[in-house]
Amino acid sequence: MACNFLPLSPNHLARYFLGAWANILIRKAGPMIVVVDDRDMVTEGYSSWFGREGITTTGFTPTDFDEWVESVPEQDIMAIEAFLIGECADQHRLPARIRERCKAPVIAVNDRPSLEHILELFQSGVDDVVRKPVHVREILARINAIRRRAGASATSGADGTQLGPIRVFSDGRDPQINGIDFPLPRRERRILEYLIANRGRRLNKVQIFSAIYGIFDSEVEENVVESHISKLRKKLRGQLGFDPIDSKRFLGYCINIE
User: Is residue 49 packed enough to be buried (19+ CB in 10 Å), middle (13-18) or exposed (0-12)?
Assistant: First the structure.
């Protein structure tokens, strides 16, 4: 029995393998930022800069991105940390395309000093616009700010956010375990709030550091995060009888409560 196969052009094969490779990276590397830009040198540059901060990126041209976002499995696209849209002809169209599949932050990189262009980008659905040149740590801080606002709007300040027996608040109050106040130092409390706000996602040390300390606290080493999390885990284990924070070397931390 003869089987007929449609021939694939080199471009189609390249796009297929690019999308497949991106999906593998998402599953293996943890949180990822997707960069869309017409210029290979730009996507490669972001890959290098974010890589120095411990963040994995994958780059697409708009055409390749359209094909990928159409076919990527749900569990893979939901693991995306954020989308960074650079200079391309489809810059205004892509945010709506992303929103059809995912609620991750969408940030546009603006190469043009035009107020009209910036307003058009916001109208297209982006969450933020940054002007080049911009440091990747500022981009990470903006991503964290967008996620915090989204988490705050999803729950009321009075009720907080509940995950299993743990309830956290975003107004400075101590968390609660089984309805009883569970006092924590400020940094440990913020880490717990950040992990719960991002439940289901694995966060690396750089992301947690940026969320807790911001990008301007240059006198503090990122390794302090490990110390804070170690103390937090010990306290949670003592109160809950188990450790709700799962850690994987090189991938980061996530909170895991059935």
Answer: middle
Where helices occur in the chain by DSSP H, the ranges are 10-29, 40-52, 62-71, 74-77, 94-99, 115-123, 136-154, 186-197, 205-213, 224-240
How many folded domains does the chain comprise? 2
Placement of tokens 């964290």 in the chain:
144
For residue 9, is it within any domain?
no
pLDDT at 52 over 90: no
Question: Is residue 37 classed as helix, strand or coil in its secondary structure?
Answer: coil
Q: Is 226 exposed, middle or buried (0-12, 13-18, 19+ CB in 10 A)?
A: middle
Residue 147: count of CB within 10 angstroms of its CB: 22
Burial zone of 56 (CB within 10 Å; 0-12 exposed, 13-18 middle, 19+ buried): middle
Measured distance CA(114)–CA(90) in Å, rounded: 17
Final residue of a structural domain among 143, 173, 188: 143
- Each residue of 66-77: pLDDT tens digit? 989 888 887 678
In which domain, by residue range, is 176 found?
A: 157-255
Proportion of the chain above pLDDT 70, given as a percent = 81
Query: Cβ(255)–Cβ(163) under 8 Å?
Result: yes
Structure token digits, residue 7: 């021939």
**What is the SS3 assignment for 68-122?**
HHHHCCHHHHCCEEEEEECCCCCCCCHHHHHHCCCCCCEEEEECCCCHHHHHHHH
